[in-house]
Amino acid sequence: MAEAHQAVAFQFTVTPDGVDFRLSREALKHVYLSGINSWKKRLIRIKNGILRGVYPGSPTSWLVVIMATVGSSFCNVDISLGLVSCIQRCLPQGCGPYQTPQTRALLSMAIFSTGVWVTGIFFFRQTLKLLLCYHGWMFEMHGKTSNLTRIWAMCIRLLSSRHPMLYSFQTSLPKLPVPRVSATIQRYLESVRPLLDDEEYYRMELLAKEFQDKTAPRLQKYLVLKSWWASNYVSDWWEEYIYLRGRSPLMVNSNYYVMDLVLIKNTDVQAARLGNIIHAMIMYRRKLDREEIKPCLCAPTRWRGCSTPLGSRARTQGRFFKLWLYEGARLLKPQDLEMQFQRILDDPSPPQPGEEKLAALTAGGRVEWAQARQAFFSSGKNKAALEAIERAAFFVALDEESYSYDPEDEASLSLYGKALLHGNCYNRWFDKSFTLISFKNGQLGLNAEHAWADAPIIGHLWEFVLGTDSFHLGYTETGHCLGKPNPALAPPTRLQWDIPKQCQAVIESSYQVAKALADDVELYCFQFLPFGKGLIKKCRTSPDAFVQIALQLAHFRDRGKFCLTYEASMTRMFREGRTETVRSCTSESTAFVQAMMEGSHTKADLRDLFQKAAKKHQNMYRLAMTGAGIDRHLFCLYLVSKYLGVSSPFLAEVLSEPWRLSTSQIPQSQIRMFDPEQHPNHLGAGGGFGPVADDGYGVSYMIAGENTIFFHISSKFSSSETNAQRFGNHIRKALLDIADLFQVPKAYS
User: Fold this and answer.
1) Would you place residue 439 in the very low, low, confident or very high pLDDT band (cuts 50, 70, 90)?
2) How far apart are CA 486 and CA 329, in angstroms?
3) pLDDT score of 749
4) Using an 8 Å Cβ cutoff, are 418 and 251 in contact?
5) 450 catalytic, yes or no?
6) pLDDT of 249-307, one tens digit each?
7) Which member of 279, 450, 480, 712 is catalytic?
8) In this structure, is the dihedral angle defined by the CA atoms of residues 20, 26, 31 and 36, taken in order, positive or negative?
9) Distance CA 739, CA 533 (A)
10) Helix (H, G, I), strand (E, B) or coil at 438
11) Half-sphere exposure of 639 (CA within 13 A, CB side)
12) What is the pTM of this model?
C-alpha cells in the first residue's frame, strides 16, 4: 500500500515527560537535496540572464576590449581619441582607490572600454532588429531570390553566427506593427465579398465606412500608444479575453490533443514507455531552463509549472499520486521511473470518497469549478493536494484501455483521437499545461491547454521526446527500460482528499455537463494515402494552399454554400507573437470551386483558376505572418471600444460572425531528431480540436512527408447540417479531383 510508505519529515507525540520529536533522516535528506537543487537552478538562471543580457557580448569579449585599450596605451597609441583622458579628469580627486595616477588611468580605460563594449552590443541589437523588420523575402517567387534578399540573408547569418542561447534574440525581435485602419477594413471587405450578396455587401460597406471615418481614428490612437508601450499590442489581451476569461468548459472547446507515432511501436509495456518519455521530457525541460535549445521563430515559451513533483493518475481510474522526478539533485533514470509507475499500476487501493470523478471539475463550467474551489479546496488537505497537482511539472493519466492506429481499421484512429480529446471526462486534468496520456498498450498522447502556448510549441517538445525515446534511450528485448532500477527509492505518494457530499454533488453536476459535451462530439480521423507533399510540389503550388482550396471545394459539396473560414498562422517573427487568422474563403477560391461544380470548363481553365486561388492564399498567409492580418487588429479595436464605452455596430457584427470552418495545419518537423528518409515510418499523426461553431467543422491536418496526409475532422452530432465522416469523404474526393487537373499519374489516384 502506497499510504504506508509516505515520507514524513518529522512526527511528535505528547508524553508525560514532554514532547517527543521523531525525525526522518531520509525525508530531511530529500528536503536538503531539493533545496540544493533549487539553488542550483536559481544560479543557472542568474548566469543565463547575464549572458543573455549582454549577447552577443560576453565577459571574455569585455576583457578583450579592456586589454586592447590598455595595450594600446602602453604602445603610446590613444585609440580613445582623448576620451580616456577626459574620463580621468572627471574622476574625483583625493585619497582612496584613485590616489595614484596609474590606478586612475587604468580605471578610466576600464570605463571607456566598458562603454565601447556596451555600445557595440546596442549597435548589434538595433542592426539585427532592423534586419528582422525586412519581410520582402517572404513575397518573392520560389527560386527567384533578389540580390537584396541575398545580402539580407548574409547579414543575418553573420550576426547570428555566434552560438546563441534560447532567448538571446528576444530583445532584437521587432514589435508587432499596428496596421492602418483603412488597410484592415479594405482586406476585411475583400474577405467577406464572396459570402454576401450585393445588398448585404453594400450594407457592410456603409457600416465599415462609418466606422473608419468616425470611430476608428480615436480607437487607433489608443492602440498605437499601447504598441509603443507594450511588447506586443495583441498577445496579453488575446490570452486574457480569448482563453482566461472564457466561462465555457476547456474540454473540447479550448484544449487540443496530439497523437503518438502511429506506424511503429517501441514497446507495449505501459510503465516502461512512460519511464523513457518522462525522462526525455525532463531532459527537454532542463535544456529549456538552461536555454540550450537553439532559437527559432517557433521557439518554446516558458514552461508553466516550476516544481519537480509530477502529479500522475493510476491505472484504476480516479486515484491521485505524487511522483518525484529527482532523487535529491539527480534526475531519475528511465528504469527508476518505470519502477515507480509500475508501483502505481500495482497499487490495489480504492479511490477515496469523491476522488474518482474529481477531475470532472476541470471539464465542466469554469464558474462552477471556481465556486467549488473556493468552497471546498481553499484549506486543509484538499488545498494541499490541489497545490501538489497545480505545482507539478505536468499531469499523467494512466488509462486501463488500449488505443492505437490500425491501418486496416479506419475507425481506430478516430477512437484514439476521442480518447485524447476528452477521455471519459474525469480521467484528464484539463487545467494543466498538458496531460500526458498513457494507454495500457504503451501508446501515448497529449491533451494540451491552449492559453499558455499554441500547437507548434507543444509540437517542439513532443518531437524531441519521441525522437529521444526512439533513437537515444531505447528498450530491452522484452520492452523494458535499459538498466537496473534502484529499489530503495521511496514509492509514489497518494494524495489525500476530504470531499464532502456537497462537493460530490458539484462534481457529479460538472461530470454530466462534460459528458453531454463529449457525447455530442463527432470525430473522424483518417490517413490520406494517395499522395502527400511530394506530388503537390509537382503542381507548383504551396501544399497548404492546395489543402485549403480542397477544403473549400469539399465544404461546398458538403453544405452547398461557402462560409467564413479560419486558418491559424503564426506571428512569431515578432516579439511575443502568437497567431493571426488567414481568411481562406476568398473570391479566387470560390471562383475555382464554382467552376469545378459547373463541370463545363476545360482542365486548362480550371488549372488557371486554381493557380490564382493558390497565389491569393499564399499572399494572405504571408500578410498574416508579417503583421498585416485582419482579425487581431479588429479584435483589439473592439476591446478599446469597450474600454472607452464606445458603441460600434461594425465591430459588433464583425466579432459576432461564426467560424463554421476552423482549420489548422500542424507542422511535421521543427527539429531534426532523425532522417525521415531513412526512417519513413516514424510518423506522428498530428492532432486535433473540437468544432468552433455548433453547426460547423474543425479541421486539423498534417502533411506528413512526401506521400501521406493525416486529417482530424470534428463536428457535433446535435447539428443536422454537419457530419464529420461525410465531410472527410468530400475532402478525399476534392484532393483527388484537384490532383487530376494536373494530370497526376494513375499510380497516385
Assistant:
1) very high
2) 16
3) 40
4) no
5) yes
6) 999 999 999 999 999 999 999 999 999 999 999 999 989 888 888 887 443 343 433 33
7) 450
8) positive
9) 12
10) strand
11) 18
12) 0.88
